[in-house]
Each structure stands twice: as structure tokens, then as C-alpha cells.
Amino acid sequence: TFTLAGANTYTGPTAVVNGRLLVTGSLAAGSAVTVSGTDPNASTFLGGNGTIGGAVQVQAGGVIGPGDETV
Length: 71
What we know:
The structure is a single chain. By secondary structure, the protein is mainly beta. 0% of the residues lie in helices and 44% in strands. The strands form three sheets. A four-stranded parallel β-sheet has the order 1-4-7-10, with no helix packed on it. It has a three-stranded parallel β-sheet with strand order 2-5-8, with no helix packed on it. The chain is globular, with a radius of gyration of 11 Å. 23% of the residues are buried. The model has no long low-confidence stretch (mean pLDDT 89).
């Protein structure tokens, strides 16, 4: 699990593949996040109680949920 806390000013794309990303702070506008999984034995999860200023795309194998919920 990787956690992004505080105000992040990075504006590039972020890909979550076969892992967990929790956003507890904020990601700047233009910081698109893609969530996808290629390993059927791994859980790919985007969660947290923060904000993402850019687009979020959930592809096959990806899960998005509130908080640090376990899937």
C-alpha cells in the first residue's frame, strides 16, 4: 500500500497496477489516476478520504472504494 498525504502538486498521470493507493490528502488538477489489475491473484485498489483533482479511470481488475477499505 502506498499512501499520498498532504497537498501533492504533481500533475502527471498516475497508474495503479496490482497494488493499493490511498489518497489521504489531495492531488492537483490534471493528475489523472488509472486503476487496473493484470494479476487475478492481486487486488488493485484506489481509496482514501482525500481528493483527486483530475480524472479517475477504473479499468478491468481495478477497484475504487471509500477510505482504506479492504477488498
